[in-house]
Amino acid sequence: MNQRFKGFVAGQVGSVAVSVAVVLVVLLGMLAVAIDYGHMVSVSRELHKAADAGALAGARFLVPYVGAPSTPDWISGQNKATETALLNRADNQGLTNCLAEYGYWNLITKTLQSSGIVPTASHLPAVQVTITKAEGLNGGPIQMFFAPILGMRTRDLSARAVAVISGPYTVPAGGAFPLAMPGILVEQYWNREPPVSFKVGSAYHDPEGGQWTSFLADANDVPTIRDLIANGNPTPLKVGDNIWIEPGTKTTLYADAASKIGQTVLVPVVNTDFSTHAYTPILGFASFYIENAAGGSDKYIQGHFVKDTIDTATSGGPVYGTFVPAPKLVF
User: Fold this and answer.
1) Residue where a domain terminates, one of 113, 133, 166
2) What angle do CA 261, 262, 268 make, to 5 degrees?
3) R_g of the chain computed on alpha carbons
4) What's the domain range around 301?
5) Do 146 and 259 fall within a single domain?
6) Which among 45, 56, 57, 312 is positioned nearest to 162, based on CA atoms?
7) Does 139 fall in a domain?
8) Residue 330 belongs to a domain
9) Is residue 213 a contact partner of residue 185, using CB atoms and an 8 Å limit?
10) Fewest C-beta atoms under 10 Å: which of 32, 277, 295, 296?
C-alpha cells in the first residue's frame, strides 16, 4: 500500500513538472509577444510621427509658387520635408534616412502622381514622406527581446505620410474680415501676375464690388460691422454657411477699415449681385491685402488678392490662392 502511494505521488509530481514546463513555455511566448509587440508599436509611432512632421512641413513650403507658368515649389517642399523628418528619433536613435517625394495626390485613386501631369480638380499638390527601419536604413531593423525564442530576431518597420495643400474650408473665430467678395471678381483678379490693385466701394464695381457682411447674424448696423472689422468673425465659418450681405455705403466703416492697411485678411467669396439684403452661401475664402481705405465722399477699400499664401484654416474648400496644408496618412 505504501509503495503504491509513493508511486502515485511520484507520478503526480512528474505530471506537475510537465505541466509547469508547458505553462512556462506559454508564458514566455506571451511575454515575448507582449514586450516585443509593445516595442514594435512604440517605434512605429515614432516613425509615423516623424513622417507626419516631414510631410506637413514640406507641404507648407510648396507655396509660394515659382516659375512661369507658376507651379508649386517642389524642391523647397522636398528639402523641408527631409530636413524636418530627420530632426526626429526612433528606437532611441536619431533618424538618418527618409524618402521625400512630391507630385499631385489623386483624391480618387489615393495615389501620388507625377508633378509633370496636368492637374484636375481631383489632384492636389502633395509631399509624401516614407521612413523605414531596415538593413542599412535608420540603424537597421528593430531587435527583438524575447521573440528569438520563437525564431524572430528582427523586424523591419516603415511609416508613410502624405500632406496636401488645398483651399480653406473652415475659418476659425477671428480669422475672417467682414467684406464679402463676389466670385466673379475673385476669379478675375486672384491669379493675376503681377497682382492687380482695385477698389471696392459704392462707386467701384469692376465688374462688381464687394459688400459688408455681418457673417451669420442678420445685422444692419454700423456698430456690428465695426466690431467685426476689429475682431473678425465671432464663430467659425465654413464653406456653405449662409452669411448676411449688407448693401449700402456705410461711410464711416471705410474709415474704420484703415486700421487694417498693410495687412492681409481672409475674405469670404460669395455668388450674389449684392442688390438686396439677403443671406448667401460662402463659396470659399481668399486672401486680400489692404493697401488703403478711406471714408468721406470717396468711400473705398483698395487692395489686391494675394496669390499662394498659407493660412491656418481647415482645408478642403476651393482654392483662391489661399492654401492650407492637410496631412493624410497612408499605410
Assistant:
1) 166
2) 75
3) 31
4) 173-311
5) no
6) 56
7) yes
8) no
9) no
10) 296
**Separation between Cα atoms, residue 56 and residue 59, nearest integer Å:** 5
Q: Is the pTM of this model over 0.70?
A: yes
Task: Measure Cα distances from 70 to 30, 62, 98, 131, 264 in Å.
Answer: 58, 11, 28, 30, 21
Residues 276-306 pLDDT 10s: 788 999 999 999 999 999 877 778 899 999 9
Question: DSSP readout, 260-317?
Answer: GTT-EEEEEEE-----SSEEEEEEEEEEEEEEEEE-TTS-EEEEEEPSSEE--SEEEE
Are 111 and 237 in the same domain?
Answer: no
Q: Between helices 74-85 and 2-60, what is the axis angle to 10°?
A: 150
Q: Which of 166, 182, 197 is the last residue of a domain?
A: 166
- Residue 161 counted as domain residue: yes
Do 152 and 77 belong together in one domain? yes
Reported as a single tens digit per residue, the pLDDT across 198-235 is 888 755 554 467 889 999 999 888 999 999 999 999 99
What separation in angstroms does the CA of 57 have from each of 43, 53, 73, 272? Answer: 21, 6, 13, 37
Exposure letters 236-263 (e unless 16+ CB within 10 A, then b): bbebebebbbbbeebeebbebbeebeee
Residue 70, burial from CB neighbour count under 10 angstroms (0-12, 13-18, 19+): middle
